[in-house]
Design goal:
Shape: elongated
Largest sheet: 2 strands, antiparallel
Strand order of the largest sheet: 1-2
Low-confidence stretches: 36-42, 152-157
Order of helices and strands: HEEH
Number of helices: 2
Strand content: under 5%
Radius of gyration: 50 Å
């Protein structure tokens, strides 16, 4: 109990000492910084009371102009409905004719797939078909398409 009362007395004494030091140092500091040195009209007015100085304000003329608002946001866009598009063939896209948010209809061309290899494969398959057809016709004894009939002028050579 004695320790508690001594501690309280010490805190009260320290607070009182702080107030006294503040009262003696602050007015001396303010009077030394004021242009009038504590005289009326300086920072310290008549009777030594504190008088705040007016604030300096910078002004500008008002003019009407457009305001450009730019907002940069990072994020992901998610549509109300998401449809997964799966092509029937693999390949690189050569063109994409839509943008995010465009509406599409059933059967609408959305993109083009590079088809050079597929066209070459079709040409090779057509050539293989013609060779197979000619082989079958020759085996049956029929002239293949483009071959001359027996007795034609080019056969007599």
């Amino acid at each position: 109990m004695m320790v508690r009362s001594l501690l309280t007395l010490f805190l009260v004494a320290a607070g009182a000492a702080g107030v006294l030091v503040y009262q003696r140092l602050v007015p001396a500091t303010l009077s030394s910084q004021s242009p009038g040195g504590g005289a009326p009209g300086g920072r310290l007015g008549a009777g030594g009371s504190f008088q705040p100085q007016p604030l300096l304000v910078e002004t500008a003329t008002v003019s009407r102009a457009d305001i450009a608002e730019e907002l940069q946001i990072v994020g992901n866009l998610v549509g109300d409905a998401t449809i997964e598009v799966a092509p029937k063939v693999n390949g690189r896209l050569t063109s994409l004719d839509l943008r995010l948010g465009d509406q599409v209809t059933r059967g609408q061309e959305v993109a083009r797939v590079e088809d050079d290899e597929l066209r070459q494969q079709v040409s090779q398959a057509e050539a293989a078909y013609e060779v197979a057809r000619a082989t079958i016709q020759t085996a049956r004894g029929q002239p293949a398409a483009g071959e001359n009939e027996p007795g034609s002028p080019s056969e007599s050579i």
